[in-house]
Write a structure and sequence with these properties.
Blueprint (H helix, E strand, L loop, with lengths): L8 E6 L7 E6 L16 E7 L7 E5 L6 E8 L6 E9 L6 H25 L1 H10 L5 H19 L6 H18 L22 H22 L4 H22 L5 H10 L27 H4 L2 H20 L27 H11 L9 H5 L10 H23 L4 H12 L3 H7 L17 H24 L8 H5 L1 H11 L16 H27 L1
Antiparallel strand pairs: 1-2, 1-3, 3-4, 5-6
Length: 540
């Protein structure tokens, strides 16, 4: 309600604190109310002002919840020339996290049941029940089963020393990616952050880069020991890079990061890695001061190269002069930063990419919707590739740790813990905030704080999975199955993701129940298909 001497009022909203106010609705003369739909992801600042005048009548900030109905009231004091705004809840919002909690409890129950099933089948009461229902097997069948068991034991003894934790993490990353691409149940934290900040979707690509780099070190070291020439390794890298590029071009998601990790491995002498890490601290051997850190000392040229690479990235990002934009600006431009720098979206990175490749390689980023950006911007350009090599370097260090400290689980976990401490630099650079740090955590152009933060989280994930899967020898299912058929799952879900039975048209848009069920169903279906392919290969 209002009794002001104005012809019309205009309502503005501000999605983030550093953004310009945007028009939301206009209440014309003779109108008493108007309905609008607002986003519930961020805290919105609402402002009411007269259309034909300057100034603000009133403003307030509110975090709205999903499917709730709110009324914004504007009142003028009868004695004072004051205007106040208040919000009332007309219809209580939905509990948006209830479907997520229900899904978690169901999946956790299935996991617990599946993990305890072998113990249930081995208990005495189950065996007695089985004997009563089924006829006792003949002696021949028992002998046959014993022979099969002996064969399986012999086979298990000769199993390869492949690290299952790496396969588990890669399968986990692929599963999360499929879930995110299917909509993530409609939750904002399963979508990519529009600019600064981290969401679950932002973790997938760094995890892939981390695991690929770690696997490359292990694979190339094994091939070196088998006598594979350098030219053969180079041909293998080239072929895999071409295949990934072709797949990336087909789905408009090309990223050259994997190829650069491989080349960095080829540039080092992996034959200096000991066949078994047990000679470190072993009595009777030469004890040098650098033995505990030989995985760092033996590869000092790589450290120098990475430091130079980071220095070059910092200089290009913050010291390169760009026409019509402030030096060192790395924001969104347009309505971001109070609209002071329009057409300056990540200007240094965009300026370099345009100078090298022109305008045709760019696509409009996801920040366009929130920040009203008009400049095309490619987040995986030259500067993004340079800083991503730093992430690839962390991957290589993880692989070298696994080689140098092989069969020394405490040494591996201790070195992982050391690298986790490097994540403190991300807290310092970002000041533990989303937008106020020296270098905010940002995946759109991979920032230095983003790389160090993702490096820390990747080491945490690898350490946990290494302890669970390789040390404790607990199973890595069901994530092992998508890993064994990763390209098929990726291409398949990209081509068939919007067809039945993987997805369907959502009928109930006001809640997350159907959206979350569809996302989980589509993801589980691809995991099941990967399991069938895994069983088929295993039988062969």
């Amino acid at each position: 309600m209002y009794r002001l001497n104005v012809n019309a009022l205009e309502v503005f909203y501000r999605p983030l604190l550093q953004c310009l106010y945007q028009p939301l609705a206009t209440v014309g003369n003779g109108q008493s109310n108007i309905s609008v739909v607002v986003s519930t992801q961020f805290t919105l600042t609402l402002k009411i002002a007269p259309v034909d005048g300057n100034g603000t009548l009133c403003s307030l900030s509110q975090t709205f919840e999903e499917a709730g109905h709110y009324s914004l009231w504007m009142r003028q004091s009868e004695l004072l020339n004051d205007v106040t705004c208040s919000l009332t809840v007309d219809r209580s919002p939905n509990n948006a996290y209830l479907p997520l909690l229900a899904a978690f409890l169901i999946l956790a129950s299935i996991t617990v049941f599946w993990a305890s099933l072998p113990y249930i089948l081995r208990c005495s009461c189950t065996q007695r029940l089985k004997n009563r229902i089924c006829r006792r097997r003949s002696q021949n069948s028992i002998e046959m089963d014993e022979a099969i068991n002996e064969h399986s034991v012999d086979k298990s003894k000769s199993k390869s020393s492949r690290l299952k934790s790496l396969d588990t993490i890669r399968g986990l990353s692929l599963t999360v990616m499929v879930f995110v691409n299917y909509g993530g149940g409609g939750y904002w934290f399963f979508q990519h952050a529009p600019w600064n900040g981290l969401t679950v979707a932002n973790l997938v690509m760094p995890w892939f880069v981390f695991i690929i780099g770690t696997s490359v070190v292990l694979a190339f070291t094994s091939m070196h020991r088998k006598g594979a020439p350098w030219l053969q390794l180079l041909c293998k890298v080239t072929w895999r890079t071409i295949v990934l590029m072709l797949i990336g071009f087909c789905f408009m998601n090309y990223s050259p990061k994997d190829g650069y990790c491989d080349i960095l491995v080829l540039a080092t002498d992996t034959r200096s890695v000991p066949p078994f890490g047990f000679h470190i601290f072993c009595p009777g051997t030469d004890q040098n001061w650098w033995n505990p850190i030989q995985d760092l000392v033996l590869h000092w040229p790589e450290w120098i190269f990475i430091v130079l690479l980071e220095t070059m990235w910092l200089h290009l990002t913050f010291l390169l002069p760009v026409p019509n934009c402030p030096t060192g600006y790395s924001g969104t431009g347009d309505i971001g930063d109070d609209g002071l720098y329009p057409n300056c979206t990540e200007r240094a990175a965009t300026y370099i990419d345009r100078w090298l490749f022109g305008d045709n390689i760019f696509w409009y980023p996801t920040c366009k919707v929130l920040y009203r950006t008009t400049e095309p911007f490619g987040p995986e350009g030259v500067l993004g590739t340079i800083i991503s090599i730093v992430m690839g370097f962390f991957c290589m260090q993880a692989g070298k740790n696994l080689l140098f400290f092989r069969k020394m689980n405490k040494g591996i976990l201790a070195r992982f813990h050391t690298y986790m401490k490097n994540g403190i630099s991300a807290a310092i650079l970002s000041k533990c905030t989303r937008d106020e740090g020296f270098i905010p955590v940002n995946k759109k152009p991979w920032s230095l704080s983003f790389v160090t933060c993702m490096g820390r989280m990747s080491f945490v994930l690898l350490g946990v999975m290494y302890f669970i899967v390789d040390i404790k020898e607990w199973c890595g299912q069901p994530f092992i199955y998508p890993r064994m058929n990763s390209i098929f799952v990726y291409v398949g879900h990209s081509l068939l993701g919007f067809y039945f039975p993987f997805s369907w048209e959502i009928r109930f848009q006001d809640s997350h129940w159907e959206q979350l069920f569809q996302s989980i169903w589509g993801t589980a279906l691809w995991v099941f298909i990967a399991y069938l392919l895994y069983r088929k290969k295993k039988k062969k």
